[in-house]
């Protein structure tokens, strides 16, 4: 789509601004087709009956009169709130340990704490079944409570959401001003008052933002409740059940609209906070350095490594489960489960599909998103278009995966839609995944671009160099670290996501994460664990390659960064 | 400061101007940002080969005017004509100029060579010719041998010169400089000032430089355009701007200036309190409140009491001269006089001393009251 603008050579200068316009329009078109139209179609569907006639809010009325469905709202809120409490509490303590104490092994802890991001959210759910299920070796710890239900859901969600919260809070706690603490100390303020009057207010925006992010992730998650929820239904599993189980698309749309509300609310709060936070930063702040305090440092070391231990235990359990012949009766080690006999068309095909998807999204998505961000940030003119594109780039954050996936069915599966041919192809999965994870990449790009000298483009223009040359020769190379971050983020998410794509694959394009779901549904628990581990390992390898590549680039290829 | 300035001005022998052809004509250019008017009806002609400075306080619209000339900002109304060609609506790429920004905007990932060659590459010039041209340019800015360094490894002054070489590489007809020296420390700045000026004179390239440093403008420019609040206050040679300021704003912005509250009288006259003083001819109405502007170095002091007297209330030693603050005896106003060090021994200055003051008519100008503040 973007490539079009590169093909035409610019002999006349007016062509250049025409190209810019075309590229902007292409960016807008991408998000209109990939986000706005599907969402609007879904909203319309929620107001129609099965025959497609407009019936106003009748579907919603029906929804609220069906106790089995309405119950899910309370259920979802309950597990989301509990997860938020657990995750934000733990993450705050751990982030505090990393930033404000002299605990040893910070780097190792941060590495371990990030691991859950590399796994699909189905993985912790599977592990928890092995740990606390009917045959689980730790089930006594639950004191008779069943892991199938809210307890399991909260534990599973906490596992995979924890790294997100930890990163947000670490950032918030890093921005401290030493001068405030020195002033407090000089005035003889007790430690607990310093904490209440300086530390907490300093991170309040980061903390509020984190609360909302975690809450949204929890209330919209599909993988964990699907695997370990048992009879306990939540909104995200309701969408799935209505659509895939009962083929009731209208009710699916209604639940989606309800699921959209908390996400949109949290999105608005987050935007509001971001705007406020800017004013708070002071350019002259002096970073605060912790000084050793043995007791405090040891307490935080124990705490952080207890958390890291739990993470390693969950991942280790999944690995172990995938290697054991037949849990718990035959504990001999085998690779048999990695042949995925439970799947008619073989599991490795699904893995390969996922790999194709992840590489495509990483490549296409990075270029498209970064280029669009560049158009928004570094163009003169076309203001309404640029603002519109920026707004649409922020929207995907407010759209849960389940909602986006269902919206795609409604829009692309319509008879007479010119994009109908996309349905069931790998391309629609690429488009969907790209849009699903657009916002974070967009924000990363914008941040990186804002750090560049605003006059690069002007210099290029004054030297009569076409804008795409300056983009390729200067902007892209200088922003390479951010670009690599974006691509690995997209790769990992494409590899692990299940919520949106679960509606969009067909037999040729089945993905590894969907295969985990199906293997689990069919009772092949060990194979499900094996597939989840396979996804985890793939992400891990790519992440390690990315780290190595970034290291090499910054040290050799980008010598100019520390030129002397 | 003003002594340095007067001596610089004296040294500045007016360059012999060939019959002038206009290079750039700006006609009634206005730029609005929403309801804010950044440029208000700017008209100006810049001649071929001339070095012009835009001078004015922060926010007066200098950068906006420069960017308008470059096509980086589109004017709301008005026309721009470069070498008889209407460029008002041309995009940046189609205009003929080179530009150096305050930040230099050197490409950090490219070597000095590639930075300078950036605009040449695009023109499908052969490699050997690019190499020769870059070598020539680097020699011009005294940077031969730095071809393979990255910008981060250069000092501020060196980076500035690379940016200059890059802007000159494509042989533009017009060179635009936006505060090119303001990011440098004072010593480098002084050195580069003369280097840039010499380079410009040698190449004969028409140059516009934006600055808010009056000393820079006075030493470098053939002509200075003094701006304030989006309008041009005065256009003139450095000597004209300094000695014949067209408005109270220009008078106060450049060099030091005394402003005495007076009442305008008939031609060449004003009343300071009840005392008449002579001044240059003016157009103010009789009885109108006015201010009489006179430079401190023009004020003459003597030990003999005269028609106008003042009591010394402050003496500052400033090297080549002493700055004396006086309170006028009959009217409650203060006046500053700069006394060259060798005269001050004759005066035998001390606090509380009452001196006679002479305000030479040929150095005293009248402006309407309340117009001097920026
Ligand atoms: N893009 C813009 N949008 C709104 N206002 C602007 C914009 N660019 C400049 N201005 C305003 O126009 C006025 C003139 O700005 P300009 O940058 O030309 O000033 P300047 O004379 O170069 O000042 P300085 O010496 O500080 O660089 C300022 O008040 C500025 O706030
Ligand atoms: Mg400026």
TrEMBL record, chain A:
Entry's transmembrane regions: 21-44, 79-99, 111-133, 153-174, 195-219, 249-269, 298-321, 357-376, 388-409, 421-441, 486-505, 525-545
Cellular component terms (Gene Ontology): plasma membrane
Chief site of localization: membrane
UniProt-listed InterPro entries: AminoethylPonate_ABC_perm-1, MetI-like, MetI-like_sf
Membrane topology, from the record: Multi-pass membrane protein
Domain of life: Bacteria
Keyword line: Membrane, Transmembrane, Transmembrane helix, Transport
One GO process term, biological-process aspect: transmembrane transport
Location in or out of the cell: Cell membrane
Stored Gene3D superfamilies: MetI-like (1.10.3720.10)
Stretches assigned to the ABC transmembrane type-1 domain: 73-270, 351-546
Family statement: Belongs to the binding-protein-dependent transport system permease family.
PANTHER family, sorted: POLYGALACTURONAN_RHAMNOGALACTURONAN TRANSPORT SYSTEM PERMEASE PROTEIN YTEP, PROTEIN LPLB
Annotated protein name in UniProt: 2-aminoethylphosphonate ABC transport system, permease prote
């Amino acid at each position: 789509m973007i490539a079009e603008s590169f093909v035409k050579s610019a002999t006349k200068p007016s062509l250049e601004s025409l190209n810019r316009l075309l590229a902007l329009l292409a960016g807008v078109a991408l998000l209109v087709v990939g986000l706005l139209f599907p969402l609007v179609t879904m909203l319309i569907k929620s107001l129609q009956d099965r025959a497609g006639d407009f019936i106003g809010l009748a579907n919603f009325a029906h929804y609220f009169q069906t106790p089995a469905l309405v119950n899910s709202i309370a259920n979802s809120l309950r597990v989301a709130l509990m997860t938020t409490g657990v995750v934000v509490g733990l993450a705050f303590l751990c982030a505090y340990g990393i930033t404000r104490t002299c605990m040893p092994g910070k780097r190792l802890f941060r590495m371990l704490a990030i691991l859950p991001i590399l796994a699909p959210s189905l993985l912790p759910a599977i592990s928890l079944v092995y740990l606390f299920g009917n045959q689980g070796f730790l089930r006594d710890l639950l004191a008779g409570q069943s892991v199938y239900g809210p307890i399991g859901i909260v534990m599973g969600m906490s596992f995979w959401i924890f790294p997100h919260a930890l990163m947000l809070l670490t950032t918030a706690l890093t921005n401290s001003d030493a001068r405030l603490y020195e002033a407090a100390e000089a005035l003889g303020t007790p430690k607990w008052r310093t904490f209440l009057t300086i530390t907490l207010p300093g991170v309040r925006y980061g903390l509020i933002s984190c609360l909302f992010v975690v809450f949204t992730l929890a209330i919209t998650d599909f993988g964990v409740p699907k695997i370990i929820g048992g009879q306990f239904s939540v909104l995200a599993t309701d969408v799935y059940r209505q659509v895939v189980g009962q083929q009731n698309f209208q009710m699916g749309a209604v639940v989606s609209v309800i699921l959209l509300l908390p996400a949109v609310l949290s999105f608005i709060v987050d935007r509001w906070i971001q705007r406020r936070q800017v004013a708070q930063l002071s350019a002259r702040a002096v970073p605060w350095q912790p000084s050793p305090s043995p007791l405090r440092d040891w307490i935080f070391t124990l705490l952080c490594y207890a958390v890291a231990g739990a993470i390693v235990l969950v991942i280790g359990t999944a690995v172990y489960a995938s290697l054991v012949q037949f849990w718990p009766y035959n504990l001999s080690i085998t690779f048999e489960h990695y042949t995925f006999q439970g799947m008619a068309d073989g599991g490795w095909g699904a893995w390969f599909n996922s790999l194709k998807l992840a590489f495509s999204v990483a490549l296409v998505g990075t270029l498209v998103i970064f280029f669009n961000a560049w158009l928004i940030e570094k163009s003169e003119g076309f203001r309404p278009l640029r603002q519109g594109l920026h707004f649409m780039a922020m929207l995907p954050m407010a759209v849960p995966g389940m909602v986006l996936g269902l919206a795609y069915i409604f829009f692309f599966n319509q008879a007479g839609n010119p994009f109908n041919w996309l349905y069931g192809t790998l391309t629609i999965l690429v488009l969907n995944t790209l849009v699903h994870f657009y916002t974070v990449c967009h924000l990363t790009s914008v941040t990186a671009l804002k750090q560049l000298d605003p006059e690069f483009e002007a210099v290029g223009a004054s030297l009569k160099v076409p804008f795409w040359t300056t983009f390729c020769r200067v902007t892209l190379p200088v922003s390479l670290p951010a670009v690599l971050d974006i691509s690995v983020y997209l790769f990992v998410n494409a590899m692990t996501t299940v919520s949106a794509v679960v509606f969009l694959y067909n037999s040729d394009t089945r993905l590894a994460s969907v295969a985990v779901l199906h293997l689990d549904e069919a009772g092949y628990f060990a194979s499900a664990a094996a597939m989840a581990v396979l996804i985890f390992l793939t992400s891990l390898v790519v992440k390690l390659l990315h780290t190595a590549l970034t290291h090499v680039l910054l040290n050799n290829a980008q010598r100019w960064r520390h030129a002397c | 400061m003003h002594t340095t300035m007067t001596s610089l001005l004296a040294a500045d022998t007016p360059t012999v101007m060939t019959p002038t052809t206009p290079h750039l004509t700006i006609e009634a250019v206005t730029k609005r940002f929403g309801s804010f008017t950044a440029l208000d009806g700017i008209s100006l002609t810049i001649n071929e080969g001339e070095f012009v400075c835009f001078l004015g306080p922060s926010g007066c619209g200098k950068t906006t005017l420069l960017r308008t000339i470059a096509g980086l900002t589109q004017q709301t109304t008005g026309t721009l004509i470069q070498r008889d060609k209407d460029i008002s609506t041309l995009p940046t790429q189609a205009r003929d100029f080179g530009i150096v920004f305050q930040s230099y905007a050197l490409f950090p990932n490219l070597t000095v060579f590639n930075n300078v060659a950036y605009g040449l590459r695009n023109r499908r010039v052969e490699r050997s010719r690019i190499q020769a041209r870059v070598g020539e340019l680097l020699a011009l800015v005294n940077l031969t041998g730095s071809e393979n360094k990255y910008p981060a490894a250069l000092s501020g002054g060196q980076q500035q010169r690379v940016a200059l070489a890059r802007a000159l590489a494509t042989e533009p007809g017009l060179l635009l400089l936006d505060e090119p020296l303001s990011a440098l420390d004072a010593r480098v700045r002084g050195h580069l000032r003369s280097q840039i000026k010499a380079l410009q004179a040698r190449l004969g390239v028409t140059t516009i430089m934006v600055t808010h440093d009056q000393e820079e403008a006075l030493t470098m420019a053939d002509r200075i355009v003094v701006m304030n609040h989006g309008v041009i206050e005065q256009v003139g040679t450095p000597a004209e701007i300094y000695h014949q300021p067209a408005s109270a704003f220009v008078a106060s912005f450049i060099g030091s200036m005394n402003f005495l509250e007076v009442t305008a009288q008939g031609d060449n006259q004003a009343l300071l309190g009840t005392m008449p003083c002579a001044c240059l001819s003016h157009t103010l109405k009789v009885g109108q409140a006015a201010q009489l502007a006179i430079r401190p170095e023009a004020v003459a002091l003597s030990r003999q009491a005269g028609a106008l007297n003042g009591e010394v209330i402050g003496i500052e030693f400033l090297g080549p001269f002493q700055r004396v603050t006086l309170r006028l005896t009959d009217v409650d106003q203060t006046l500053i006089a700069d006394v060259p060090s060798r005269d001050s021994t004759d005066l035998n200055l001390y606090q509380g001393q009452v001196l006679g003051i002479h305000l030479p008519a040929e150095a005293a100008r009248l402006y309407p009251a309340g117009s001097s503040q920026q």
